[in-house]
Backbone:
C-alpha cells in the first residue's frame, strides 16, 4: 500500500515562496553537464517553482508537479513550464519522457518505492535523477548554537518523522540508482533580520507548534537572534546543501 501523501506547506505557501533560499547556479550547471539531453525535465514537488524556473532556462520543456494547489498558485510562470497538481508517486506522464528528474528539498516526504518505480517508468534510459535538501543556516559559532537549540530542542517534537532523513543529510535515504560522484554545493545568502524570521516561519515544525500551542515560537527566539543583526542591514550566512545524484539505467 502506498504511503499517504503529506501536504504540510499549503498553509504557508506565500511565506515559503517569499523566504526559502534559492539554489546556487553551480548546482544547475553541474546537472546540465551530466544530462544526455536537454529536451524534457520533470521537477517533482516543485513548491514555488524555483527549480522549474531554473530548468526552463536550458530545457525545451519542464513539467512541474506538486500536491499543493496553493503552492503552484505562487509558482514561477514561464511559457515552457507546465504545472500539474498530482503526486510524484503516480503521474499521467508517458513512459520514457524525461532527461532529468529533480526533487528539491522534498524526497524525504515521498513513498520511496512508489516514487522510484514511477521515476524509472517516465525516465529515458540513462536519464539523471537528482534530489537535494539543506541543513540549518550557519553564521558564527554563537549564532549557530542559538539556531541549533531552536531547531533540535525547542522544535524537537514538532518535526515530522521524515525529518530524520534531512538530519542525516540524505546519507541513509534509499536511492537505488547508479550513484554519481558530485561536487559539494552550498547556498550563500545575505539576509535581513526580517527575511531570516520569514524563513523560520516557513518551517513545517513551526506551523505544527503554532497549531498545538497557539503561539509562534519564532516570536520568542527573535529576541535572542536580534543582537546578531545589530548595526547591520543584512548578515552573510551559509546554508550547507547535500544531494543524491544517480543515473537511471534501464
Residues:
Amino acid at each position: 500500500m502506498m504511503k499517504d501523501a503529506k501536504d504540510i506547506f499549503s498553509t504557508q505557501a506565500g511565506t515559503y515562496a517569499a523566504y526559502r533560499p534559492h539554489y546556487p547556479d553551480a548546482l544547475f550547471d553541474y546537472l546540465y553537464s551530466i544530462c544526455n539531453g536537454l529536451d524534457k525535465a520533470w521537477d517533482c514537488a516543485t513548491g514555488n517553482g524555483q527549480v522549474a524556473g531554473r530548468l526552463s532556462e536550458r530545457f525545451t520543456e519542464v513539467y512541474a508537479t506538486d500536491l499543493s494547489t496553493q503552492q503552484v498558485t505562487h509558482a514561477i510562470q514561464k511559457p515552457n513550464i507546465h504545472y500539474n497538481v498530482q503526486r510524484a508517486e503516480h503521474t499521467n506522464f508517458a513512459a520514457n519522457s524525461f532527461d532529468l528528474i529533480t526533487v528539491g528539498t522534498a524526497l524525504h516526504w515521498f513513498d520511496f518505492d512508489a516514487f522510484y518505480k514511477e521515476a524509472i517508468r517516465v525516465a529515458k534510459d540513462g536519464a539523471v535523477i537528482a534530489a537535494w535538501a539543506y541543513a540549518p543556516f550557519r553564521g558564527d559559532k554563537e549564532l549557530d548554537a542559538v539556531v541549533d537549540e531552536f531547531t533540535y530542542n525547542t522544535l524537537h517534537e514538532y518535526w515530522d518523522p521524515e525529518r530524520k532523513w534531512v538530519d542525516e543529510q540524505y546519507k541513509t535515504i534509499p536511492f537505488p540508482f547508479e550513484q554519481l560522484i558530485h561536487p559539494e554545493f552550498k547556498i550563500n545568502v545575505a539576509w535581513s533580520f526580517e527575511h531570516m524570521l520569514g524563513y523560520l516561519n516557513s518551517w513545517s515544525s513551526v506551523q505544527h507548534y503554532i497549531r498545538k500551542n497557539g503561539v509562534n515560537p519564532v516570536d520568542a527566539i527573535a529576541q535572542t537572534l536580534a543582537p546578531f543583526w545589530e548595526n547591520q542591514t543584512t548578515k552573510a550566512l551559509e546554508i550547507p546543501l547535500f544531494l543524491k545524484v544517480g543515473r537511471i539505467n534501464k
Summary: DSSP finds ten helices and eight strands in the chain. The longest strand covers residues 234-248.
